[in-house]
Design brief:
The protein has 316 residues and is mainly alpha-helical. It contains 16 helices and no strands. The protein is 75% helix and 0% strand.
């Protein structure tokens, strides 16, 4: 772990730049990931039993967003060396020389402390503790350990991206409940087929950077089978909210149709007769899986917040 913090030393900046601008620091926050965190945390709040004042909810979402951004900044700080080797990430602020390592580290740590303290004050310390653990898990467990050590990095590390609904529920209830856990599990199962589909197409980038992603370690054939396996598990588990009475008819139809689409693309990946065909289907999976998760969580959000809960019998 001490070696990780040796990386705080500054990198030289290009002569034409004095430091990063606002846009560079915003990029450190990984805004696309942050938007997903905000959305899934909001759904966790809405499906949680009980009510919360809108001002507290808004302030809590802001704290969660800042915490997600802190995780992104610390991830970019630690991964600057491998980011420089990958075409997908080489233009990020640190490898491009617009922000130094020490600036990114200080920025990430300040946001981490501020977000946790803010959430604890405006909501409760259970939610704040979960946020702190999420930041630690993504920045340390995933970025510093799993990502460079095991091909299961996305599977285990995916928990970091799955925690926000649990944090959202804890904001409302002050505890960890089944609703947040079920949403956590859906995101957890969604993560491997989503990222491995992209990793197949970007395998050369990961190989050059020395990151042991599943396609580089186990090969395309094994990765395709695992994508299918996780997709089947996701599609089946996605019905649990209906069995628990969390989801209504709109959610059920969404996961039925979306699940059919996920399985269809996973089948094309599995049966592709060439690397080019599997990679093309993989990029389709990457895009469609985002739509699937957004649609499923949007259906839950609409049912619970807009009174559209055409309830189905609770079986569990």
């Amino acid at each position: 772990m001490s070696a990780a913090f040796d990386k705080i030393a500054d990198q030289p900046l290009p002569a034409h730049r004095v430091g990063g601008d606002v846009g560079d620091y915003f990029q450190l926050l990984k805004p696309r990931v942050m938007s997903l965190v905000i959305f899934t945390a909001l759904v966790g709040m809405v499906v949680a039993p009980g009510a919360i004042h809108p001002v507290i909810a808004a302030a809590s979402l802001l704290a969660i967003a800042v915490g997600a951004g802190a995780s992104g900044a610390l991830n970019m700080w630690y991964d600057a060396d491998i980011d420089a080797l990958m075409s997908r990430t080489a233009k990020r602020p640190i490898p491009a020389g617009r922000i130094t390592l020490s600036e990114a580290f200080a920025f990430g740590m300040a946001l981490s402390a501020g977000s946790v303290l803010m959430l604890g004050v405006v909501a409760n310390w259970v939610a704040a503790g979960l946020l702190a653990f999420t930041i630690f898990f993504y920045a340390v467990v995933y970025s510093m350990w799993l990502k460079r050590w095991t091909a299961q990095n996305i599977v285990i590390g995916g928990a970091a991206g799955a925690f926000p609904p649990m944090i959202g529920e804890a904001v409302v209830t002050g505890q960890i409940g089944w609703a947040g856990f079920v949403l956590f599990a859906i995101i957890f199962l969604w993560t491997p087929p989503h990222f491995w589909a992209l990793a197949m197409a970007k395998a050369k980038d990961y190989e050059r950077a020395g990151v042991p992603m599943m396609p580089n370690v186990a090969g395309d054939a094994s990765t395709r089978r695992q994508i299918m396996g996780y997709t089947v598990a996701l599609v089946l588990f996605a019905f649990v909210p209906n069995l628990m009475g969390m989801g209504g008819l709109a959610y059920l139809m969404t996961v039925l149709l979306g699940g059919a689409g996920m399985l269809g693309i996973a089948w094309r990946i599995l049966k592709a007769d060439s690397a080019e065909a599997s990679h093309k289907a993989g990029m389709q999976m990457f895009g469609f899986s985002i739509l699937y998760l957004f649609a499923a969580f949007s259906a839950l959000l609409a049912e619970h917040s807009l009174g559209l809960m055409w309830a189905l019998p609770k079986l569990l």
